[in-house]
Write a structure and sequence with these properties.
GO terms for molecular function: glycosyltransferase activity. It is found in: Membrane. The longest helix is centred in the last third of the chain and has 30 residues, at about 480-510. Helix 8 links the parallel strand 1 (about 175-180) and strand 2 (about 205-210). The protein contains 21 helices and eight strands. It starts with 12 loop residues before the first helix and ends in a 7-residue tail after the last helix. The protein has a single domain (about 50-60, about 75-545), classed as Spore Coat Polysaccharide Biosynthesis Protein SpsA, Chain A (Alpha-Beta Complex). It is mainly alpha-helical.
Length: about 550
């Protein structure tokens, strides 16, 4: 969160010390609220004064309950909590998903939609670049979501009635089930739900693709529990539009208490994209394909040369090239499958880094800028890339204003500066939590720290031309790399550095006469940010414990 300054015109120091100042002079120095927010301070200024449905919860491979758990002492419960959240001795318990319930199926239908660093000195202009880029992204994203339309559920149901699936009308369907060293219970759970799908005749053919022994894998491992009506809800959309290449549905995740905090946060943070962003992008014909839970038209894939040969996010590239060649991509926010998320910080870091790398590779490729996509479509893709850049830079730029002010212009450090940061805090902690269908707890804030450093690493890889080897999200043994370690070291260094700057500046200025209450809100906000980042800093993986 950003602590932003509000410049205020105050009397010179000699006048402040003069308690017998004439009332006329005091009134002359008073400024309106607007002037305090807009005027530049003088050089001689001084410091002034839903509850989950239990029937819908996934099958859990739970560890045996501890004997006499209710009689454990406070110290023992503290040790148990520490080992669970920071230093697990065993790999996390696998919490298998079940297919979405009828209530969850349509839970993404309703979207419920949703600079100030004053130019006091020339040496604050460095902050303007970050502020401008962030605001451009925010206004771009707001424009896409404000004018985007809700999914037409009535129109969708009409397509189902107009194009019923029978033995004569149903096209053949191949279901690809990639395998790459995922836990065997995850694969068994997936295949069980795939086998329960309803489809006319014998026109559905599941195909298992065992890529565990290959160096590169083209498809993301399928770890989803599908509803039996998955194909019944999506194939008619294809039948209604012969130019439709891909129908994409949401990636949906539950967050039961048996999961790790990483799984809970990683699943909940996806709702905003699949429930709000994707439907709005679909309005402009710019929804993206994410691979999982999608139905592809074989004719379209053949026409565009098959799946795109991309190192990361080949599904996004495939959808882009299909649209660029005249095909269409539709997004239906109908929850038809439930999945599982990475359960450790390292695995989640690897997944997010891969997603960001895939987006950057597309947005920095000449094919994108020379494509025949409409301007509004390119704007949607560009907004996605700017999201990654804004999150990556926020971790470093957001904590700086308070420290910079205290060291350079302490007279501008006011307790009400925090008021400018309150809206973003309220939105992130309260508003979105009330809007979300999933439990939007502090686990989301914890995982967003991991996302910031993962995106930063992706940008560094792109700048320096280093490549990232692909590993599936479900294979925790393949996520060890120096990138995660390096970003952890950077997080430690940056956390110590900016907290040291803020605390030392606060002590120095308070001892010099600055009222403590002018600094306290900034310290309070910094303490909250420190609490949010501590999970990423202190987590010890099971095999490192």
């Amino acid at each position: 969160s950003v602590v932003l300054p509000a410049a205020e015109a105050v009397p010179a120091q000699d006048d402040v010390l003069n308690e017998k100042q004439a009332p006329a002079e005091q009134n002359k120095n008073k400024a309106s609220l607007w002037s305090r927010l807009s005027r530049k301070g003088g050089k001689n200024e001084t410091p002034g004064n839903e509850t989950f449905n239990e029937k819908a919860r996934p099958t859990t491979v739970a560890p045996p309950a501890a004997p006499n758990a209710e009689k454990r002492s406070l110290k023992q419960r503290f040790v148990d909590s520490y080992r669970k959240h920071y230093c697990p001795r065993e790999a996390p318990t696998v919490v298998l998903p079940s297919c979405p319930t009828d209530k969850e199926k349509y839970s993404y239908m309703s979207m419920n939609r949703a600079w100030l660093f004053i130019k006091t000195e020339w040496y604050f202009f460095w902050y303007a670049l970050y502020a401008v880029l962030t605001e451009v992204y925010i206004f771009m994203s707001l424009g896409i979501t404000i004018f985007g339309k809700r999914f037409d559920l009535k129109g969708h149901n009409q397509k189902l009635r107009d194009h019923p699936l029978t033995v004569e009308t149903a096209p053949t369907v191949d279901i690809y089930l990639p395998v790459c060293k995922e836990p065997i219970e995850v694969l068994a759970n997936t295949w069980k739900h795939v086998g329960a799908m309803r489809y006319p005749g014998i026109k559905m053919q599941p195909v298992v693709l065992d890529d565990g022994a290959q160096d590169e894998v083209k498809f993301l491992a399928a770890t989803f529990g599908f509803r039996p009506d998955f194909l019944e809800k999506l194939i008619p959309i294809h039948l209604a539009n012969p130019k439709l290449a891909i129908v994409q549905t949401p990636q949906f995740f539950r967050a039961p208490g048996e999961q790790t905090w990483v799984e809970q946060g990683a699943g909940s943070v996806q709702e905003y994209f699949y429930r709000l962003i994707q439907p709005c992008r679909n309005t402009w014909g710019a929804a993206i394909c994410v691979g999982s839970n999608a139905v592809y038209r074989r004719e379209a894939l053949v026409a565009v040369g098959g799946t795109a040969a991309a190192e990361c996010s080949e599904d996004v590239h495939t959808g882009f090239y299909a649209v660029n060649r005249g095909w269409e991509l539709a997004y239906a926010p109908i929850v038809l499958a439930c999945g599982i998320c990475p359960d450790t910080p390292r695995a989640f870091f690897s997944q997010q880094m891969r997603w960001c790398t895939g987006s950057l590779s597309l947005l920095t490729h000449r094919d994108f800028w020379k494509s025949d996509l409409a301007f509004k479509q390119k704007l949607c893709y560009l907004s996605g890339m700017m999201y990654y850049s804004s999150v990556a830079t926020a971790a470093f730029f957001n904590p700086l204003p308070a420290s910079v002010l205290l060291w350079t212009r302490p007279e501008l450090m006011k307790y009400y500066n925090l008021f400018f940061a309150l809206p973003s805090l309220l939105v992130g902690l309260i508003v979105i939590r009330a809007w979300a269908r999933s439990p939007y707890t502090l686990s989301v804030q914890y995982t967003q720290v991991i996302m910031a450093y993962a995106y930063l690493q992706s940008f560094l890889d792109r700048i320096f031309g280093t490549k990232l080897s692909w590993v599936p999200s479900g294979n925790n043994k393949s996520h060890k790399n120096n990138r995660y370690r390096n970003m952890r070291v950077l997080a430690w260094c940056w956390t110590i550095a900016h907290n040291g700057l803020l605390i030392s500046a606060s002590v120095y200025r308070i001892m010099g006469g600055l009222a403590w209450w002018q600094v306290f809100p900034a310290l309070l906000l910094d303490a909250f940010n420190l609490f949010i980042v501590h999970r990423f800093l202190f987590y010890v993986h099971a095999k490192e414990a």
